[in-house]
Amino acid sequence: MKRIDWNGLDEAGRAAALARPAQSRATELRDGVEAIVADVRRRGDGALRELTQRYDGIILDTLQVGDEEFAAAEARLTCELKTAIRDATDRIERFHRASAPVAVSVETAPGVRVERVLRPIRRVGLYVPAGGAPLPSTAIMLGVPAAIAGCRDVVLCTPVQADGRCDDAVLYAAKVTGVHRVFKLGGAQAIAAMAYGTDTVPRCDKLFGPGNAWVTEAKLQVAGDPAGAAIDMPAGPSEVLVIADEEADARFVAADLLSQAEHGPDSQVLLVSPSHALLERVGDEVERQRRALPRADIAAAALGESRLVHVRDLDQALDVSNRYAPEHLIVQTHDPRALLEGIESAGSVFLGPWTPESLGDYCSGSNHVLPTYGYARSYSGVSVASFQKQVTVQEASAEGLRHIGPCAATLAAAEQLDAHRRAVTLRLAAMDAIA
Amino acid sequence: MKRIDWNGLDEAGRAAALARPAQSRATELRDGVEAIVADVRRRGDGALRELTQRYDGIILDTLQVGDEEFAAAEARLTCELKTAIRDATDRIERFHRASAPVAVSVETAPGVRVERVLRPIRRVGLYVPAGGAPLPSTAIMLGVPAAIAGCRDVVLCTPVQADGRCDDAVLYAAKVTGVHRVFKLGGAQAIAAMAYGTDTVPRCDKLFGPGNAWVTEAKLQVAGDPAGAAIDMPAGPSEVLVIADEEADARFVAADLLSQAEHGPDSQVLLVSPSHALLERVGDEVERQRRALPRADIAAAALGESRLVHVRDLDQALDVSNRYAPEHLIVQTHDPRALLEGIESAGSVFLGPWTPESLGDYCSGSNHVLPTYGYARSYSGVSVASFQKQVTVQEASAEGLRHIGPCAATLAAAEQLDAHRRAVTLRLAAMDAIA
């Protein structure tokens, strides 16, 4: 990990210190995904079968996972894992239910009622990656808010494994969250299938979930097409920033940095601290712990792009963090809650020594589908609201129109929109005619 | 307006009947906008001055509107218009405040607290078009939620007029909503300036507001660039769908259809009704009222793409509406509220004879920046939430980690993420060592 002295840097140096590994939408990737999307639109299920054979090496008889496959998957799982999936689901449900949007009704003037009602997005498509390892936790993170939002048609795509099956735990997690329509599809072809529909895969209004560069590029492409589908957010590699002071336990901090670094060689981890001693200790501890990991090589690659940043004090640490806008922000300081007020941009925050990022990744209750790559400056993580539309409703009585109609007519006249004005004045005249 | 019998159509005919005028991101438009964006990124303020001279025919001394210009604009406005702007702002504020997201705090397990906190997006850019006529109402619709969200830096761009000034009412509306940084910039160059920043225009994290095809294309381009800015939503031409029954007043319905049609030749208006007689009456009335409008030609062009749709009953009318997913949905039936439950996809809904769309456009309290072009299937209109990030926070005590740590460790093991697992087990071991 590279050591950086924040106060020894000029503006350009600071920008470089917080730069993320470049993410170019390379022409090759763009063209490759465009070809796949076009193929799926043109040839539907036939294309899906061919692409799955080409990329996953599997000849699929049926694309959809059948009831007996769900049952067999469940039977193969340990009781411990099934219990963990159900417990995690319960806690995630509790938090997501509590933070779901609520209906609103306000009288803004006598006789004028304005409301906000909530409507589920009808058909949603969830993508659960299984590139490195399958991610049942992502099935929970997407399935729970979709269910609370009341989405009627929920579709889930996840890559098929070498044995022709989908991962047992992903299927069980899907079932526990109420998702029964699962397709053995991965990559750009899965995104294309959900965005445009085929004979077998229903066309979805919005797509959710993380994925590799192909999946991400496909999501961007279908989101840019009015005939395509909306997406949850743009995505990049995972990342964590830790703010820690002298009192932090270097072993804990190192473990948290590594749990991000093992995600992939392009993951980025930063430690920001006013304590030279801590930076030193954590640097050593990271190396020590890393060697024991099964994914030690991946972690080493990620650590190559990572930073130990020395700052003047915790206020400056907050400045650095807000500027970076990390997906995950861990605070291990003497009084972590004292820093919360100053946190402006982050996907999810973890306070104190006993809150490793793993808790949020799996089972504290918050969502782990979060904005990466600096998008935390303007995007939020997935929540129930991501699966709903907020529709405004207004109803004026004759009295209400009398009250606010003249205001609307004046503004319409200022905007030279005469038909807008007349839609009001014609009604006011009709009222007078009745009276 | 074209008459359509919904039940006489097959599936393809129904799709065609609800098709919107094609919206292609023509290569010419794309390339033209790309060139402007690149020029603004490269040459900054110099490019802005040149482009403004080329497209608006104005040589700008300073890009930013000065204090004395605000004061002069206010002095030129009528008392009536200023009062209307303030009254509308008050009501919009009331509704937006009531429907703003709230902080949440939940204990999801003993010793595990999960919260949602709200943070304003730091720098936001508002675009207020003035192509046909200037739109002070849009300045209100964007300025009010930005202020309630607590955005610290708010920038507004609006095209310069032939007299070298910005519209007086737009400036006054900006000031009333607390926006003091206004730039005399329009078109793709305004979007580029706010997305990337110049010496004069600050770089913004998210851009809001409607605009013509150039503005919309520029917004899509900067949203697709990680170095660019997020946007509120994709946009298309404005549209309304009216559901009316035998009892509706044909004059009111016609006036509402026309107030949408006058927006532009590509606006689309639909009337859906089970009553042949009403469809007939409204058709006649539209033609009669249209002739009296200053923008009669624009309305005639829009009506050419519009439809009178006959359906079996009001349930079928709802089906048609949900399938179309209109930006504005007006319900003028015997019991309009009875239909609300069945409305799935719409930007904003107007119930009953005394609620013309103009009320929502200007001053009922709801927002008029709404999803068009079928995006109401998956997007919501602008609200306070659009200007905020929802950040999740978790804090576990040692007891909390004991409770849910094993669940996280089990799931991490299932996902073969060993460092995730160890970040938990190492802490649990440390606890045991202390005890």
TrEMBL record, chains A, B:
Its cofactor is Zn(2+). The keyword Metal-binding applies. Substrate binds at residues 238, 260, 263, 328, 361, 415, 420. It catalyses: L-histidinol + 2 NAD(+) + H2O = L-histidine + 2 NADH + 3 H(+). It is an enzyme of class 1 (oxidoreductase). Gene3D superfamilies: 1.20.5.1300, Nitrogenase molybdenum iron protein domain. Its EC number is 1.1.1.23. The active site is at residues 327-328. It comes from the Bacteria. Pfam families: Histidinol_dh. Pathway: Amino-acid biosynthesis; L-histidine biosynthesis; L-histidine from 5-phospho-alpha-D-ribose 1-diphosphate: step 9/9. One of its GO terms (molecular function) is histidinol dehydrogenase activity. Keywords: Amino-acid biosynthesis, Histidine biosynthesis, Metal-binding, NAD, Oxidoreductase, Zinc. Belongs to the histidinol dehydrogenase family. This is Histidinol dehydrogenase. It comes from Luteibacter sahnii. The gene is hisD.
